[in-house]
Amino acid sequence: MKNIIKFILILLLVGSLPSCKKYLDINKDPDNILEDEVPINLLLTNVTTSTGFIGGSDLFRYGALLTQQFSGQTTGGETQTQAYEKYLIQSADVNNAWVLYNASNLNDIEVIIKRSAEQGAPHYSGVAKILKAYTYQLMVDAWGDVPYSEAQQTTANLFPKYDKGADVYNEIIKLLNEGIAECNAATSSLSPGSNSTIYTGTFSTKKANWIKFANTLKLRVYLHYSKLDKPFMVNQITTLVNSGAPFFAANADNFEMPFFNAANRQNPIHQFELTRTNYLFANKFLVDMMNLKLDPRRQFYFTQFPGGSGAYVGAKAADPVSQKYSRMHVYLRGAVVNAGPPKADGSYDPTGTNSISYTGDAPIRMFTYSEYNFIRAEAALNGAPGDPQIFFQEGIRASMLGAGVSAADITTYLAANGTLAGTDADKLKQIIEEKYVALYGTIEEPWTDWRRTGFPAIVKVSNAVLSDIPRSLPYAQSEMDLNPNAPPQKSSILEKVFWDK
C-alpha cells in the first residue's frame, strides 16, 4: 500500500509539471523529487495512511504476543509468530518497522513541517508535529534511545546520533505544544481536509479533534513516568487537567484510521489473517480473563469454539499443533460477510467453505476515549484530579460501546465488575486489567502498561528462550550495519527503556 501511494504521488507530480525542460533540469537531483516537488497535501495523505497501517502491523503484533492477547500457532513448522511468542525476536525482524518509521514516515513528516513553514501553512505543520510526537512516543517505548536531534536530515547527515529516550520524551511534549498552537493559528495558506485519512473533513471542524488528541497524548506520555517518578507524573497531569485543556470526550474522538471493504483498502490486521493463515489465535490468558467475568465483548472479539457453542477457547505458547481455538472476530476484522459451518471438530478455517469471511473494514484504533478514561482513573488513584471510580466505569462503558455491546449487557457487567475495591494496589490491578481488555487491538500500550505496573500478571511462557518477558526490542540490523553512530546492539531485549526503571 505504501509503495502504491508513493507511485501515485510521483505520477501526479509528473502529470502536473509544466514542461520537460523543468523535469530534465540536470541541476536538480531526481532522487529528491518527493521532498522538492510533491505538494504537502499529498504527503499528508501518505503519512496518515502509513500511520494507520503501522498501527496494525509489526509493532502491534509484537506487543499483543508478548502480553498474551494473541498466541502464535501453526499447522506445522514454527512460524514467526510462534518465535516471537517465545521471545525470539531478532534484529533483522524489526528492520521493516524501523525503516517504515525513520526512512519513510518521519522523513515525510519533516518535509511537511519544513515546507509548511515556507508556504505559511501552520495548520499543516501543526498536524505534522502532532503525528511526529505520536510516532516518537511509539519508538521510544519500543526501542528506548533513538535518533532525534540529527534525524531526518537526508544527505546532510546520513548517520544520525541516538538521543536518550528521556530527552526525546521532553521533545515530544514540546512538539505537541507547538502542534496545538499551530493548529490554532488564525490564518493558514493551506489546511488539511479530506486528504487526511485520520480525522478526515474540513479543518475548521476537525482541528478540535487534532487538539484533543494532542492533549490526550500528553496524558499518556506523563502516565508513562508512573514507575520512574510518580510525583512528577501526578504533578504534570494535575497541571494539564487544571489548565482546562480539551481531551477526548467520546468514542467519536478516537485517534483511529478507517478502512474499507475493497481490495488493498482493508485493514492490516485482517490482511495478515488472510495472508498468514493460522499464524494467530486468541490467547488463553486474555480469553480466560474474559470468560471468568462472562465479558460480553467476547462475542465481538473472538469466534466461538466449538463453532456455535457459545464458548471461547484461547491458545498458549507451546500448545500442540491445532486449530481448535477461537480466532479474532468482527472487532478487529469488520462485519461478517459469510459464515460457513465449522468443521466436524468445531474449528473454523481461515478461508474456504469452513470459514467466516469479513469485510476487513474495522478501523485501526490507535488511541481511544476508553484509554483516556483509564489514564485518568489511574492518575486520580495516585492523587491527580478526578474520581477514579467514575473514570474506571466510563473506560469500561466506552470500550463496550465501541465493540457493539448492548446497553443492558453493559449495565449487567458494570454491576458485577465496575466497582473499585480494596487497597490502592488492588484498585490499580482492576484498572489495568480492564484497560488490557479494552485495548485489545491497540499498538504497544498493553505492553507498556505491563512494564510500568506489572499488571496484568502475565508469566513467562513455558518455552521461552529468555529468562523473562522482553522489556524492549532489539535495534534494527540495518542500523547496526549502516549507521556508525548507532549504539552497540543490546545485549538482551530484557534491557529496559528509561521510564521502566
What topology emerges from the helices and strands here?
Elements: H1 2-16, H2 20-23, H3 33-37, H4 40-54, H5 58-66, E1 70-72, H6 80-85, H7 95-119, H8 122-143, H9 165-183, H10 203-223, H11 230-242, E2 255-257, H12 268-275, E3 280-282, H13 284-292, H14 298-301, H15 330-333, E4 336-339, E5 356-358, E6 364-367, H16 369-381, H17 388-403, H18 407-417, H19 424-438, H20 445-453, H21 477-482
Antiparallel strand pairs: 1-3, 2-6, 4-5
Helix pairs in contact: 1-4, 4-7, 4-8, 7-8, 8-9, 8-10, 9-10, 10-11, 10-16, 16-17, 16-19, 17-19, 19-20
Q: Classify the beta-strand content into a percent band.
A: under 5%
Strand order of the largest sheet: 1-3
Spatial extent as radius of gyration? 23 Å
The assigned structural class equals mainly alpha
Q: What is the number of E strands?
A: 6
The CATH topology of the largest domain corresponds to Serine Threonine Protein Phosphatase 5, Tetratricopeptide repeat
Mean pLDDT: 93
CATH architecture of the largest domain: Alpha Horseshoe
- Number of helical regions: 21
End-to-end span in angstroms? 38 Å
Helix content: 40-55%
Q: Report the uncertain regions.
A: 1-31
The run of helices and strands is: HHHHHEHHHHHHEHEHHHEEEHHHHHH
The rough form would be described as globular
Query: Under the CATH scheme, which class of the largest domain?
Result: Mainly Alpha
- Please, how many domains? 3
Largest sheet: 2 strands, antiparallel
Protein described:
The chain is mainly alpha-helical. It has 3 domains: 42-77 and 90-234 and 471-500, Alpha Horseshoe (Serine Threonine Protein Phosphatase 5, Tetratricopeptide repeat), CATH 1.25.40; 268-362, no CATH class; 369-438, SusD-like, tetratrico peptide repeats domain (Four Helix Bundle (Hemerythrin (Met), subunit A), Up-down Bundle), CATH 1.20.120.840. Helices cover 50% and strands 4% of the residues. The chain contains 21 helices and 6 strands. The strands form 3 sheets. It has a two-stranded antiparallel ribbon with strand order 1-3. Strands 2-6 form a two-stranded antiparallel ribbon. Strands 4-5 form a two-stranded antiparallel sheet. α4 (40-54) runs antiparallel to α7 (95-119), α8 runs parallel beside α10 (203-223) and α10 (203-223) runs antiparallel to α11.
